[in-house]
Amino acid sequence: MAVDASRCAQIFSERFGSAPAVIARAPGRVNLIGEHTDYNHGFVLPMAIERDTMIAGRPLNEPVLRLWAENLGAAGEFSLNAIARQPDAPWADYLLGVALELQRLGRPVSGAEAVILGDVPLGCGLSSSAALEMAALAFFEALGGFRLDDAEAARLGQRVENGFLGLSSGIMDQFISRCGRADHALFLDCRSLERRLVPVVMEQAVFVIANTNCPRGLTGSKYNERVAECGEAVRVLREKTGREGTHLRDFTASDLDAARGGMSEVVYRRARHVITENDRTREACEALSAGDLVRFGILMNESDRSLREDYEVTNRELDAMTSIARSLPGCLGSRMTGAGFGGCTVSLVLRDDADRFCAELSRRYQEATGRAGETYVTRAADGAGAVSG
Asked: Is-above-0.90 flag for pTM?
């Protein structure tokens, strides 16, 4: 399911009294494999999903944004002359941050009246924030008659989060929301930003996202712990190997085994996850390109086990969801996706078994945890852009 542009246009007309001049959209995403590798300068393999954030609006001849957030039932008017955070309307910060970054680039930023509507689930690791940022960027681009390079667009979104919002985040989410293509995943090198599309055309199988409806709990302190543990592993690896690597992506499993005696067991396991996950992600690209879905499913399971045992970022709900999924007919592989400690899983499921899989997964998950989960069957979707203008 994705947001209906005609519905978004209708809401705008009812709210502001005319048809919108521009409708822009951007998708959420799911990371198929390559978790906690981004800040270690490694590799990721996300795909855009069939869930969108959409913005419909028209330009104004004054430097203000008059916004209506349909999902929240919230309205606000915000100046573009002195852009600042909005404590009483934090949802608007994403659009204002994009506008500020465009101003800094010397791009024309038009005032506007606009409606925001979306069906990317909030707070569960499917990148609703990146979808809003990239939809806002596509909206301003359409109004201003310009278009940023895709890499610069992704960097802009990251600057909004890191600088304007003060959030620690990588660049994967903005990249896939901007650069996604239907029936393709995106293999991204988080150091060089080199990327390539990987075909995800599967007649026999589909991806099923399952939302644990357990809010993500990877607090800043736990995130910082993992970053520090990876940094300690790099320090020991440099000392033991004599190499000048700066991040875990610069070292191999053999390097890690040789340096094991110089690091704690916890630090060793953290590094083992990142190094092996980078290898799995590259192998997963090859498996998808070759149509080897069985191998891809095995790699998903191996990734989940590594995240659970070595990186320790799962929780009871995630473990229940993936364990149940793997026990059901038609499931080729299942893993947690996103930061961890809640949020979503992603499973590769034979198409003929998908409906039964979703129903049974939801039923057994609720029995096991007392929580009502949600499932979303999705194909790989296109990235951000204008729908009409």
From this structure: yes
